[in-house]
Specification:
This protein has 225 residues and is an alpha/beta fold. It has 2 domains: 120 residues, Response regulator (Rossmann fold, 3-Layer(aba) Sandwich), CATH 3.40.50; 99 residues, Arc Repressor Mutant, subunit A (Orthogonal Bundle). Helices cover 43% and strands 24% of the residues. It has 8 helices and 14 strands. A 5-stranded parallel sheet has the order 2-1-3-6-7, with helices on both faces. It has a 4-stranded antiparallel sheet with strand order 8-9-10-11, covered by helices on one side. α1 links the parallel β1 and β2. It starts with a strand and ends with a strand.
C-alpha cells in the first residue's frame, strides 16, 4: 500500500512509518496541514493516517479536501482527542475509522488494513490476479473458473499476499497481520508454513501456478506474475 502519515509528533510519525515499511508498504509523512494538502493534491494514496490536531490547522480540513476533490483514499484518524463529538465529526465527514492515542502499532496496522479492505470492497468487489479471481463480497475464490474452498486464514493470507505481490514478507509480519495477539500463543512459526502449504496445494490442484516461494531465513514471497 501507499500510505500518507499526517502526524505532528516526530517520534510517533517516525515509529509509524518505520513499522509499516517493514511489510513493504510505501510510507510518506508530514507534520503539518499545508504540506499534507500539497501531497494529497499531487499524489494518490491508498490510505491516510490523520492526526486532527496539527500545528497549522485542523486535520478535519484534510477530509474536506478529499471530499471536494472526489479522492478515494481510506482515512484512519489517530488522535489524542477522545471526545464523542470529535469522533462523530470525523466519521460523518468522511473518515473510515477513529483510533485514540495511545495505541499499539499492531492495532494501528490491523485497523489500517481493515479500512483499506472495506474501501476496496466498496469500489470493486472482485479482485483478479491472473487466473485467480476473488469475490471479496462473497469471500469466494476461483482458480481458472474452478471454485476452491479456503479456510478463513487461508483466504486472508491469499489477500495479504496478492496485496503485497512481488515483496518479501517476513514470517513475523505474516503472523502479526493474520493472527495479531494470538501469535504469542505459538512457540514458533510452523503454523504459518502449514497454512501456506495448504493454500499453495489448493491453488495448484485447481490448475493455478505456484506463486508462493520461500525466502530462506526471511519469509515468503508471492510472485508478481
Amino acid at each position: 500500500m501507499k500510505i500518507l502519515v499526517i502526524e505532528d509528533e516526530q517520534g510517533l510519525r517516525e515509529n509509524i512509518t518505520s513499522y509499516l515499511n517493514v511489510d513493504g508498504n510505501v510510507c510518506e509523512s508530514c507534520g503539518a496541514l499545508a504540506p499534507a494538502l500539497q501531497k494529497l493534491s499531487d499524489y494518490n494514496y491508498d490510505c491516510v493516517l490523520l492526526d486532527i490536531g496539527l500545528p497549522d490547522g485542523e486535520g478535519f480540513e484534510v477530509l474536506d479536501f478529499l471530499k471536494s476533490r472526489q479522492k478515494n483514499e481510506a482515512v484512519l484518524i489517530i488522535s489524542a482527542r477522545n471526545s464523542l463529538d470529535d469522533k462523530l465529526r470525523g466519521l460523518n465527514i468522511g473518515a473510515d475509522d477513529y483510533l485514540t492515542k495511545p495505541f499499539h502499532l499492531a492495532e494501528l496496522k490491523a485497523r489500517l488494513m481493515a479500512v483499506y479492505r472495506r474501501k476496496a470492497l466498496n469500489t470493486n468487489s472482485k479482485l483478479i490476479f491472473n487466473e485467480i479471481s476473488i469475490d471479496m463480497q462473497g469471500r469466494t475464490v476461483d482458480v481458472n473458473e474452478t471454485p476452491i474452498v479456503l479456510t478463513r486464514k487461508e483466504y486472508e493470507m491469499l489477500l495479504y499476499f496478492i496485496a503485497n505481490k512481488g515483496k518479501v514478507i517476513s514470517k513475523n509480519a505474516i503472523a502479526e497481520h493474520l493472527w495479531g495477539d494470538e501469535m504469542d500463543m505459538h512457540d514458533n512459526f510452523d503454523f504459518i508454513y502449514t497454512h501456506i502449504k495448504n493454500l499453495r496445494r489448493k491453488i495448484i490442484d485447481a490448475g493455478g501456478k505456484d506463486y508462493l516461494t520461500s525466502v530462506y531465513g526471511v519469509g515468503y514471497k508471492f510472485m508478481a506474475s
